[in-house]
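Changelog-adjacent note: as of this version, every example in the card shows the full chain rather than a window. The one below runs 219 residues end to end.
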Amino acid sequence: MRKARPPRVVAELGRPETTDETAARKAENSRKHRARQTINNLALSLLATLALVAVIVLLVPRSDKPLDRAVDYATVAVEAQRSTRGVLANPALPEGWRSNAAELRTGSADKIQAWYIGFLTPQDQFIGMTQAFDANPSWLAAQLENTLATGTTTVGGIRWTIYDNRDSPDDLGNVRYAMTSEAGSSTYALAGTADPAEFSALAEAIAPDIRESGKGGTQ
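Full-length structure tokens:
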């Protein structure tokens, strides 16, 4: 027969441990083992999660360029015109220009109605065109990230105010360059990352619509 193990000697007491002490020791060892397992499992779970996030980041394409999708802004403009009293800008642009967004917007706070078209230029830059009705100075300042005017120009007989922020150290997003004009009840704001020549091309294209909108923007 197998001999029973002698009781474990507790060094601190200099005697064999009792049955209760043996049970308490084993329970404590079991608790510590479970605690270590829990920590190990948490660490493994965290590593697995980080690995999954890394895979997702690597697989998802990223680009600083604006979303490139085809939107028929001319058709959207015809539909939106039924909901507005002013003449909506609906420029005819040469090949190479396309739109990635077109919609009639109403501000949640100021309730200002605005017609918006997002343009991608032939040089793959971005210009957002917004035409607001009965806009106030606060609305325009918000569109331009509160930047200051740097000059004026006339394009297609329309006088524009220029906001050239290309040398600004601040991150102004899509307001690196901007142009604004007014005609009748409409305020026009062009803002984006394109160069001034492409801004002028868009300003030239919407000049007939601005003239039709009424006084205030022509010269």
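Structural remarks: The chain has four helices and nine strands.
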